[in-house]
Amino acid sequence: MSANTFGTLFRFTSWGESHGPAIGVVVDGVPPRLPLAEADIQHWLDQRKPGTSRFVTQRKEPDRVEILSGVFEGQTTGTPLSLLIRNEDARSKDYGEIKDLFRPGHADYAYWKKYGIRDHRGGGRASARETASRVAAGAVARRILGDGVRIRGALVQLGSRAIDRARWDWNAVGANPFWCPDPVEAAAWEPYLDAIRRKGSSVGAVIEVVAEGVPAGLGAPVYGKLDSDLAAAMMGINAVKGVEIGAGFAAAALSGEDNADEMRIRDQAVAFLSNHAGGILGGISTGQDLVVRFAVKPTSSILSPRKTITVHGTEAEIVTKGRHDPCVGIRAVPVGEAMMACVLADHLLRHRGQIGG
Fold first, then answer.
1. pLDDT tens profile 285-301
2. Alpha-carbon span 104 to 327, nearest angstrom
């Protein structure tokens, strides 16, 4: 299977399956002499891991990371980092009854048509379990970016219910199980998602990721656009079906006057009067906050009987049992943050290689 590597100078290759003995990632292009310990990575993995609330899958994975190479005496050596995360709570028997069935909405059929073989245990390589590897790589990317760049994500829509942006409070994000910046809406989401979970159904979500402190000048104007790489990074996350940057699709309804991010000089520095561009113009960062949103489809594993076919070409019905997220978008928040970090670290190193600094 090809295309398991992401990035140019800062790049990572993930490996492993949902129900295999372990998953992991090899991170290459890391500069030497960066302080790095397992605890630095574990902090971010703990935010993504399953079983943290009743609103996510109850699979109990500690997601403990082990650094196998690339660190000596607490610092990176410049050689590839190999990170291992063992699978400790896989229940493959949950999938025995559907091994010959294709789950609607999942990658089962597409994988089978392409490769002629598939791992039916939890989706194998297509499982969201793989995203733990991305979060681990993102933790390393944050060390490259340094404390001057702050990356935060939030869930801004759950199913049909969206937040009120007038109530946006970053401090509220860590105070509820949804990463919701609107404390009023977060309280309403609990009974809403509880009802969906009890029915064995699911809903989608919209996640917003913001990067502050990004220097101007990252990206290239033609085939190395910062926004195109960010879009590819977010679209590559499991279950993502749409990405927008800045005003995104809403920009189509704006006039040229409204959409233009006008500029003034304030305290001898450029000050933008708005940020419809999401911090990127011509594929290059402007120094404003980077703002990216992505839409996650409803979890495809549901208890309602769905029409499908078998590997033998017969029609059938399927009910997907097991432990699944009623909204997979909740745990996608730290994954989106990680992919933002990986893209920015890659572009920072590329910028230094061409421009210096």
1. 999 999 999 999 998 88
2. 17
CA geometry: angle 336, 339, 343, nearest 5 deg: 140
> 102: which residues sit within 8 A by CB, 6+ positions away?
108, 109, 112, 308, 309, 310, 311, 318
Band of the pLDDT at 99, cuts 50, 70, 90? confident
Tokens of 146: 């340094």
Residue tagged 């899958």 (tokens): 57
Q: Where are the alpha helices (DSSP H) in 199-292?
A: 226-235, 256-259
* SS3 state of residue 54: coil
pLDDT of residue 51: 58
**How far is 71 from 321, CA to CA, in rounded Å?**
41
Cβ(33)–Cβ(76) under 8 Å?
Answer: yes
Report the alpha-carbon distance of residue 93 to residue 16 in Å, rounded: 19
Q: How far is CA 46 from CA 52, 73, 126, 347, in A?
A: 9, 24, 21, 26
Length of the chain: 357
Residue 82 CA to residue 180 CA, distance in Å, equals: 33
pTM tops 0.85: yes
Q: Strand, helix or coil at 133?
A: helix
Residue at 259: amino acid letter: N
How far, rounded to the nearest angstrom, does the alpha carbon of residue 158 sit from its chain's CA centroid?
A: 16
Question: What is the rounded CA–CA span in Å between residue 98 and residue 311?
Answer: 10
CA distances, 97 to each of 75, 100, 129 (Å): 48, 8, 21
Res 242 pLDDT > 80: yes
Residue 244: closest CA among 157, 168, 150? 157
